[in-house]
Amino acid sequence: MAAATLARRIGRSGVAVMKFKSPPVNSLSLEFLTEFSISLEKLENNRACRGVIITSALPKIFSSGLDITEMCGKSIEHYTEFWRAVQEMWLRLYGSNMVTVAAVNGSSPAGGCLIALSCDYRIMAENPKFSIGLNEAQLGIVAPFWFKDTFVNVVGHRIAERSLQLGSLHPAPEAHKLGLVDELVPEEKLMEKAAAVMAQWLALPDHARQLTKTMMRKAVLDRLVAHREEDIKNFISFVSKESIQKSLRMYMEMLKKKKS
Ligand SMILES: CCCCCC/C=C\CC(=O)SCCNC(=O)CCNC(=O)[C@H](O)C(C)(C)COP(=O)(O)OP(=O)(O)OC[C@H]1O[C@@H](n2cnc3c(N)ncnc32)[C@H](O)[C@@H]1OP(=O)(O)O
């Protein structure tokens, strides 16, 4: 497996850098999600690690979101395993005790945006060609309640409602204006800035910061934990509909046509 890779070992600073490297576009396949969750779990259990910076090793793309091929023409068992892996990844990342900083160095639609939103702080390269957002509605699908909750917790209800209904992908400057990302910096300064932000957050005592983070996020995390099986059933029932399968196939065809 070579999907989510821990590119740099944890130094004396206690900070790990995780670089997504699953060409061509870091789509979140079952394999990718599983590896990402395992990497997070290992870091979480490593007392030497207090923070993680998440970025991409690929040019122009942070993550293209859930791997659409995992949701097309597969068995119920596969959909169950896939959706559980999506949930697991989010529960680990959003519920992490570590300081998590997303260094968004490329476009980040849908599931890719969820990863960034689940971090404590988002810094994006100031390239207007890079966009970020929960664009599910554009694919004819609906972001689950916990994607929505995560989004609302970052940008507030009104901005989230409009952006979700329209399935908007916001160019970096607009994403910054909306509060979807916290800062824009020139791409070559991204990692330097992420390290500086990390140092600022790590200057606080871990226990106070962690308890505060838990206080802010617990209700949203508990909601998925309490409804996890129901959420899987909803996903299966939704993704199994012929109309949804048709929408996903058409979207994949559109992506391929765009190239030619
Ligand atoms: C059904 C119930 C729903 C439950 C809720 C689901 C919640 C979240 C859903 C998602 O996350 S769905 C994924 C949404 N993602 C997108 O809409 C992004 C789609 N991709 C793009 O816009 C572009 O690919 C890009 C990321 C901007 C990159 O553009 P670029 O021009 O650099 O590359 P492409 O030529 O478009 O793509 C290369 C290659 O990758 C394939 N691909 C792209 N994205 C995905 C993906 N998300 N899943 C699977 N495959 C993807 C694309 O088709 C190309 O394939 P080939 O033509 O080379 O075979």
Describe the structure.
- The protein is α/β, with parallel strands linked by helices and 260 residues long.
- The strands form two sheets. It has a six-stranded mixed sheet, sandwiched between helices. A four-stranded mixed sheet has the order 4-6-8-9.
- α1 runs parallel beside α2 (76-94), α2 packs across α9 (228-239) and α4 crosses α5 (157-166).
- The protein has a single domain, classed as 2-enoyl-CoA Hydratase, Chain A, domain 1.
- The protein has helices at residues 30-44, 76-94, 111-117, 145-155, 157-166, 172-178, 190-202, 206-226, 228-239, 242-259, and strands spanning 4-8, 15-20, 51-56, 60-61, 99-104, 106-109, 121-125, 131-133, 170-171, 183-185.
- 51% of the residues lie in helices and 16% in strands.
- Bound molecules: ligand LJEIAPTW.
List keywords for this structure.
260 residues, alpha/beta, 2-enoyl-CoA Hydratase, Chain A, domain 1, four-stranded mixed sheet, 10 helices, binds ligand LJEIAPTW, ClpP/crotonase-like_dom_sf
What's this model, at a glance?
By secondary structure, this protein is α/β, with parallel strands linked by helices. It contains ten helices and ten strands.
Shape: globular
Bound molecules: ligand LJEIAPTW
So, CATH architecture? Alpha-Beta Complex
Q: What is the C-alpha radius of gyration, as a whole number of Å?
A: 17 Å
Main structural class: alpha/beta
CATH superfamily: 2-enoyl-CoA Hydratase, Chain A, domain 1
Strand content: 15-25%
User: What's the main sheet like?
Assistant: 6 strands, mixed
| Terminal Cα span | 31 Å
Share of helix, binned = 40-55%
The CATH topology comes to 2-enoyl-CoA Hydratase, Chain A, domain 1
Mean pLDDT: 95
What is the string of SSEs from the N terminus onward?
EEHEEHEEHEEHHEHEHHHH
List the uncertain runs. Answer: none
Strand order of the largest sheet: 1-2-3-5-7-10
Tally of individual helices:
10
Domain count, please report it. 1
Subcellular location: Mitochondrion matrix
Enzyme class: isomerase
Main location: mitochondrion
Catalytic activity: (3Z)-octenoyl-CoA = (2E)-octenoyl-CoA; (3Z)-dodecenoyl-CoA = (2E)-dodecenoyl-CoA; a (3E)-enoyl-CoA = a 4-saturated (2E)-enoyl-CoA; (2E)-tetradecenoyl-CoA = (3Z)-tetradecenoyl-CoA
